[in-house]
Amino acid sequence: MTCAECGAKVGRDECGLTRKLFNRGCSYCLCYACLATRFRTDTESLRQMAEAFRESGCMLFQ
Ligand SMILES: [Zn+2]
Predict the structure, then answer these.
(1) Any residues with CB less than 8 A from the CB of 3 and at least 6 apart, and which?
(2) How far is the CA of 52 from the centre of ligand 1 (A)?
(3) CA atoms within 13 A on the CB side of 59
(4) Of the residues 21, 26, 36, 62, which has the fewest C-beta atoms closer than 10 A?
(5) Residue 42 Cα to ligand 1 middle (Å)
(6) What is the pTM of this model?
(7) Cβ count near 30 (within 10 Å)
(8) Nearest C-alpha neighbor of 34 from the set 26, 46, 25
(9) Ligand 1 centre distance from Cα of residue 15 (Å)
(10) 32 C-alpha to center of ligand 1: Å?
(11) Residue 61 pLDDT
(12) By mean pLDDT, which of 10-14, 44-48, 53-57, 58-62 is the weakest?
């Protein structure tokens, strides 16, 4: 998968986060940098968020 905005390569965590933050049916993914811009946060917070979702057992992050 590549980022829908900048074309960067995105991993499973980024795809999972995109779906969490927008909606589950989302057919595209955004990279951490673009997600951070969209949600006025930073990439470190997003990584921690992905980690927290994984620990909570969210299917999107397994
Ligand atoms: Zn991007």
Answers:
(1) 9, 10, 14, 29, 30, 31, 34
(2) 22
(3) 2
(4) 62
(5) 13
(6) 0.87
(7) 27
(8) 46
(9) 11
(10) 7
(11) 85
(12) 58-62
